[in-house]
Amino acid sequence: MDNSSGNSREAYPANGRVILHLDMNAFYCSVHEAEEPERYKGMPTAVAGSVELRKGIIVTSSYTARGKGVKTGMTVREGLKRCPGLILIKPDFDLYRKYSRGFLSIARQYTPLVESVSIDECYLDITGSKIFGTPLEIAAAIQNRIREEWSLPCSIGVAPNKLLAKMASDMKKPNGITVLRLRDVPQVLWNRPCVELYGIGSKTAEKLMKLNIRTIGQLAAADEAMLVKQFGVTGSWLKQAAYGIDRSPVNPVRERNKSVGHTTTLPADVTDRGEVHRILLNLADQTARRMRRQSLVASTVQITIRTPDMKTITRSSTLETPTESADQIHKEACRLFDTHWKDGRPVRLLGVTLQNLQSRDAAAVQLDLFSYNEQPKREALTKVMDNLRDKYGEDAVLTASMLGDDPSTRIRDRRIRGTSLQLDEHLLYSDE
Fold first, then answer.
1. Which residues, other chains included, contact 284 with Cβ-Cβ below 8 Å and sequence gap of 6+?
2. Cα 96 to Cα 102: distance, rounded to the nearest angstrom
3. 143: closest CA among 126, 157, 164?
4. Which of 15, 100, 191, 366 is the most exposed place for a label (fewest CB within 10 A)?
């Protein structure tokens, strides 16, 4: 099963597929270590929000920190209690995306069948990649190149399908390569609890427990008709998965996002409506920009509001015509907030999500009809601003309303960085 005990020259199977699951190890922390090894290499680090105020949740931690008891999902306060020397790092998603594109580029050099499932993991179908060597040789080459070219550790699972490849990649971290064949399933998996089978969540595991099905082996031996009665069509999948059977293909064509959203946990409670409107503008700007990168437009705007006691509400509305405009999205988000939130109530988290997405090309006629005079000028401006940000960073272009009127607010919200270019949107949208 493990490459340390398996045959490194193992050939491709006569029939069937060979699937790799590539899982980056402690990805966010590893990226920061790769960028600044002199600061972070070998140190206990954690990526978390609201670093300055020591609040928020730990998104991920380095293996050094994990060795001291720091875990994902733990509060920063608890993490610091377990590891007083823990170094907290603010998330940098532009940096993570850069490194994600880097390791995906390496993966695609071995097969066109690469399915990216998140920013730090992907599946590869290497059935037709014999020219590059055996499956283990390909896995080792990819792992070595990612370490040498991007200074990142990763674990790789080698299996006949996605399910087993995913489970194999979790078996040896960091820097592991594990082979999991169908014939290994009874010995390796059947004694494990059902919740460890990829695809089974805690609720399903609890329900299986009530049926006296505690292990994956017991699930494999369970009556399929009973499982279907209890879980519907999922029951058949559970039975097959317990045997390690999975026929789902590696799909290199990623489906369009069903939604695009962004939330921010505020460093302190906000009660001022004007400040909320400015935060919503930044959120609208970020979500609209991400949507434009995919050449999509949105018909529905949703806002998320969380109170200091962690109560969360969402409110949404559908627009008359689809839009890609941050200005329209911001206006609708503010309208939703003003309609559903009383003055003075504290807010701890805000979010903007765009839904009912469709191709921009399919909505072109509606966009032109909506604003055929101003639309070309707005589109040209938006393109210029996007290009500036792509080249100089997200803070290269700021509109006046993003900054607010209070200089202290500008500094507190860190909306002015370096030599950002401030634009007056009223001038930009004029004929001058």
1. 326, 327, 329, 330, 333, 352
2. 10
3. 157
4. 15
Amino acid at 61: S
Which contacts (CB < 8 Å, 24+ apart) does range 335-343 have?
A: 336/301, 336/302, 336/303, 337/273, 337/276, 337/277, 337/280, 337/303, 337/305, 338/273, 339/315, 340/305, 340/313, 340/315, 341/305, 343/273
Give residue 417's pLDDT.
33
Give the separation between CA 63 and CA 299, rounded to whole angstroms: 43
How many angstroms separate the first and last alpha carbons of the chain? 69
Six token digits for residue 111: 């097969």
DSSP per residue, 83-130: -TTPEEE---HHHHHHHHHHHHHHHTTT-S-EEEEETTEEEEE-TT-G
Rounded alpha-carbon distances, angstroms, from residue 207 to 116, 204, 212, 227, 302: 31, 5, 9, 11, 33
Active site residues: 121
Number of alpha carbons in the 13 Å side-chain half-sphere of residue 353 = 16
Secondary structure of residue 227 in the 3-state scheme: helix
Give the number of other CB atoms < 10 A from CB of residue 53: 10
Reported as a single tens digit per residue, the pLDDT across 235-271 is 999 999 999 999 999 988 765 567 888 888 888 889 9
The dihedral sign for the CA sequence 399, 400, 404, 408: positive
List % helix, strand, coil for the chain (3-state, nearest 5). 45, 20, 35
Q: Is the pLDDT of residue 359 over 90?
A: no
Which residue carries 């875990």 as its tokens? Answer: 71
pTM above 0.70, yes or no: no
Q: Show Cβ contacts of residue 63 under 8 Å, excluding neighbours closer than 6 positions.
A: 25, 26, 174
Conformation bin of residue 8: beta by default, left when phi > 0, alpha when psi is -120 to 50: alpha
Phi and psi angles of residue 241, each rounded to the nearest 5 degrees, phi first: -60, -35
Distance CA 209, CA 258 (A): 34
Over residues 417-430, the pLDDT tens digits come to 333 333 333 323 22
**C-alpha to C-alpha distance for 339 and 303, rounded to whole angstroms:** 12
CA 425 vs. chain centroid, Å, equals 32
Q: Which two tokens stand for residue 150?
A: 């991007």
Give the Cα-Cα-Cα angle 381, 383, 384 (nearest 5 degrees): 65
- Residue whose entry in the numeric block shows the structure tokens 């029939």: 15
Question: Residue 220 is which amino acid?
Answer: A
Q: Are 298 and 291 in contact (CB under 8 A)?
A: yes
Q: Identify the pLDDT of residue 34.
A: 97
Residue-level pLDDT at 385: 52
